[in-house]
Amino acid sequence: MTLESGQQPDMTIPKERHYSDRVGWLRAAVLGANDGIVSTASLVIGMATAGAGLSGVLTAGAAGAAAGAMSMAAGEYVSVSSQKDTERADLARERRELKANYAHEVRELAEIYEARGLAPALAHEVAEKLMHHDALAAHARDELGFSTVNQARPLQAAMASALMFLSGAALPLICVLLTPFTMATSVMVALGSLLALALLGALSARIGGSRLRVAIVRVTFWGALAMGVTALVGWAFGVASG
Question: DSSP readout, 182-201?
Answer without folding.
Answer: STTHHHHHHHHHHHHHHHHH
